[in-house]
Q: What sequence folds into this?
């Protein structure tokens, strides 16, 4: 019994000790936590970048960002820490409660034990007193046996009393047993409480360990981040320094070039400043030169024009001389090839012969007798249209120079007049070629001279002069002498058309031919009209 009591007291003391230990541990943990917080605060206050003062503010801004991120993480962890603290606090409170309850239980148990031990003591005392009283009773019984029936009664009474006392002892024993059971259950409760305390302790330990681990990992993370940022900043700073060195050397090499460029620029600036004056002077001199050149060209032109006129005059003179020498009237013969109409045989082929050495002599057989003629020129049947035209070409130039020219074809029908003058479209004669030359010459001189070419066509038939381009072709016209005394003839009222090209002339000629006596139209028929639309078109 004593051993049990002392055991329970011993258990209470252990629990208290343990609680005290826990309280102390708790206090230590709090202190540690405060220390960590202070350290954290210090770290936060400390400048993160050891490269403070570095000129690369961008890098430092990045580092600052990283730091603020880390601070955020620390704040999060702090929140977690405070949660853990709260948990620890709750657990400590619950522990204190359990301790209180345990204390109450222990006090109750102590009281109960006290009460039970008191009752046990009483019971022992009673038993002892009863034992002390027993011998006299035995003795009484003995004496009763010896002495009398009266004593026998007293003996039975005492036996009953003894019985009662024995019952009381049994009862006491029962009570004692119950109390022992109670004590045992209280011991079990204590064990349970101890287990609970141990569990709480282990939980507390675990929470503490967890907190420490988390703080440590946070610390490590922070340190690692700072170290990484620092290393990166150092590497980048190194690169920047290298760049800076390169730029510096570049700058050093560029400086002389810059100096020369500046010098050049200044020189150019000076030149540019003087440029307008220079330009003005140059312009003035150029203007003067140009003026002079223009004057020179003008005078040259004048000179050339003078020379040209003189040459023109000379040419005219030469031409006139040539015409005078050749004769104002020249007679040229052209012999056409033999045609079917001429018949066959030597009469036809030998009618005309030529002089091999002189192209101005022609031999004829007249009534079987040879007759020779001397002309200005004789063309054989082999002569082309171009050969014939070349001979009269100079007359066209005379015409442009202002001379009156007349080419007159004479011969019997079928002799080749029309062929020589008009020709065929594939092989034109003198008229077409002369007109072509006339217009090309006029075109050439168009820049210096203004020419007006007009066409008129007249016919003398049966002593009657008629205007082939007039509105009234049957009207009779007169030939008169010019009143200016030049000896020239003119036909008053003769229709004239101004023409610009050979095509225009051909058109007019077509009209004249259709109106003429030899045209397929007869006088009683209406000739093709040129008025007024065509005339307007010809201008
Ligand atoms: P005319 O006008 O004098 O009456 P044509 O000019 O009509 O004569 O000529 C008569 C024929 O002779 C035509 O068929 C023409 O083609 C031809 N003829 C005239 N001269 C030549 C010549 N030099 N070469 C070839 N054929 C010619
Ligand atoms: Mg003819």
A:
């Amino acid at each position: 019994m004593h051993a049990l009591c002392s055991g329970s007291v011993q258990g209470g003391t252990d629990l208290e000790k343990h609680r005290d230990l826990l309280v102390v541990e708790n206090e230590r943990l709090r202190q540690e936590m405060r220390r960590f917080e202070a350290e954290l605060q210090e770290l936060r206050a400390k400048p993160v970048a050891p490269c403070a003062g570095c000129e690369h503010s961008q890098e430092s801004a990045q580092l600052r960002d990283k730091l603020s991120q880390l601070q955020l993480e620390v704040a999060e962890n702090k929140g977690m820490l405070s949660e853990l603290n709260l948990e620890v606090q709750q657990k400590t409170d619950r522990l204190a409660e359990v301790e209180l309850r345990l204390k109450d239980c222990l006090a109750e148990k102590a009281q109960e034990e006290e009460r039970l031990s008191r009752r046990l003591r009483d019971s022992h005392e009673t038993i002892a007193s009863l034992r002390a009283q027993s011998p006299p009773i035995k003795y009484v019984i003995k004496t009763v046996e010896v002495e009398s029936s009266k004593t026998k009664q007293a003996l039975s009474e005492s036996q009953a009393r003894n019985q009662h006392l024995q019952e009381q002892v049994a009862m006491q024993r029962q009570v004692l047993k119950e109390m022992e059971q109670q004590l045992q259950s209280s011991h079990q409760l204590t064990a349970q409480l101890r287990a609970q305390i141990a569990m709480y302790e282990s939980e507390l330990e675990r929470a503490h360990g967890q907190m420490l681990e988390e703080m440590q990992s946070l610390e490590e993370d922070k340190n690692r981040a700072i170290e990484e940022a620092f290393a990166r900043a150092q590497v980048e700073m190194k690169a920047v320094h290298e760049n800076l060195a390169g730029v510096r050397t570049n700058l050093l090499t560029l400086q002389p070039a810059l100096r020369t460029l500046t010098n050049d620029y200044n020189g150019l600036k000076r030149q540019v400043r003087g440029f307008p004056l220079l330009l003005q002077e140059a312009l003035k001199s150029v203007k003067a030169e140009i003026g002079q050149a223009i004057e020179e060209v003008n005078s040259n032109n004048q000179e050339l024009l003078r020379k040209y006129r003189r040459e023109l005059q000379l040419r005219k003179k030469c031409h006139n001389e040539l015409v005078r020498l050749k004769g104002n009237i020249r007679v040229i013969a052209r012999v056409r090839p033999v045609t079917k109409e001429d018949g066959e045989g030597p009469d036809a082929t030998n009618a005309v012969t030529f002089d091999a050495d002189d192209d101005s002599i022609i031999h004829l057989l007249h009534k079987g007798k040879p007759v020779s003629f001397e002309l200005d020129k004789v063309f054989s049947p082999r002569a082309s249209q171009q050969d014939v035209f070349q001979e009269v070409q100079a007359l066209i130039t005379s015409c442009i120079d202002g001379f009156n020219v007349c080419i007159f074809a004479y011969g019997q029908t079928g002799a080749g007049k029309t062929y020589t003058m008009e020709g065929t479209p594939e092989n034109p004669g003198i008229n077409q070629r002369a007109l072509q030359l006339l217009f090309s010459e006029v075109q050439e001189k168009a820049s210096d001279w203004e020419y007006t070419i007009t066409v008129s066509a007249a016919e003398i038939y049966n002593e009657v002069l008629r205007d082939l381009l007039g509105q009234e072709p049957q009207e009779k016209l007169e030939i008169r002498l010019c009143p200016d005394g030049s000896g020239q003839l003119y036909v008053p009222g003769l229709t004239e058309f101004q023409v610009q090209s050979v095509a225009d002339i051909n058109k007019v000629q077509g009209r004249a031919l259709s109106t003429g006596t030899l045209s397929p139209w007869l006088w009683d028929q209406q000739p093709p009209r040129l008025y007024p639309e065509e005339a307007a078109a010809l201008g």
Q: What stands out?
A: The chain has nine helices and twelve strands.
